[in-house]
Amino acid sequence: xxxxxxxxxxxxxxxxxxxxxxxxxxxxxxxxxxxxxxxxxxxxxxxxxxxxxxxxxxxxxxxxxxxxxxxxxxxxxxxxxxxxxxxxxxxxxxxxxxxxxxxxxxxxxxxxxxxxxxxxxxxxxxxxxxxxxxxxxxxxxxxxxxxxxxxxxxxxxxxxxxxxxxxxxxxxxxxxxxxxxxxxxxxxxxxxxxxxxxxxxxxxxxxxxxxxxxxxxxxxxxxxxxxxxxxxxxxxxxxxxxxxxxxxxxxxxxxxxxxxxxxxxxxxxxxxxxxxxxxxxxxxxxxxxxxxxxxxxx
Length: 298
What we know:
This protein is mainly α. It has 14 helices and four strands. The protein has a two-stranded antiparallel ribbon with strand order 1-2. Strands 3-4 form a two-stranded antiparallel ribbon. Strand 1 and strand 2 form a beta hairpin. The longest helix is centred in the first third of the chain and has 41 residues, at 63-103.
C-alpha cells in the first residue's frame, strides 16, 4: 500500500525550505507565506530544480530567485499563447477554406473526402469531441446558435473549425488528402517535396506547447519529448552544451513559432521575451535552451 505524505502547514513548508538552504530573509516571511499559499509547494518545487541538488539548495539560492523564475515562466506562457493563437486561427482558416473549395461547405462530413476510413480513431475522436463542443457552446456562442436555429444543424466547415482546438485541427490536417496538405504547407512557406510531413510535425509540436501553456505547465528547464523538424539552418542556431546540440528545450519550439508567423507578428513575441529577461534578471534563459545570441536569432 502506498504511503501518503502527511499535510504540511505553510509555516512548516517555509522551515523546510530554509533548512534545505534556501535563503529567505526574516522580512520576507509574509511574502513567502503568500507565495506558497497562492501557488502550491509541490508545484513550486519543480521551479527550484536548477537551484538545488539532492534536496539541498546551492549557496546563492534565494526566495527572490525562485519567485523570479516562477513569475518569468508565467509570463513566457502568455507570450507563447499569444503567438500560437495566430497560428491556430491561420491553420483553421486555410484547412476549412481549401477543403470547402474542393469538396463544398459540408464536404468534411463525407469520409470519402478525407484520407482515412470511418473507423479511424483520430477521425472518430475529432468528430465526437467537436459534436460535444458544438452542443456545449450552442447557447453561449452566437455564431453556432445562429446556424443551428436559422440554417442547419450541420455547420459549414468554416464554422465547424471554430469549435475545434489547435490539437484537433493539427490532427485533422493529417487526414486531408495529400494535395491539400501540400497546398497549405506551401502557402505557409515550406517548399520541399515533403513539406506536408514537416508541417504535420510542427503542428503537433505547437499543439503540445500550447496545451502545456494553457494548463499552466512549467516551461523552465523542461525537456520536450517531441523534437521539432527543424531545417539545417535552424539546427545551427540552437544552443550547444558540452558539445551537444540542445534540441529538447523551449528555444527549439520558439524557432517553430517563428517559422509559422510573419516577422511582424513574431516581433511582438520577441519584444515580450526581452521584457521578461529585463524584468527578471535572476532568471537564466539557458534553462529554456536560449543561446547567448538569442536576440540576434529571434
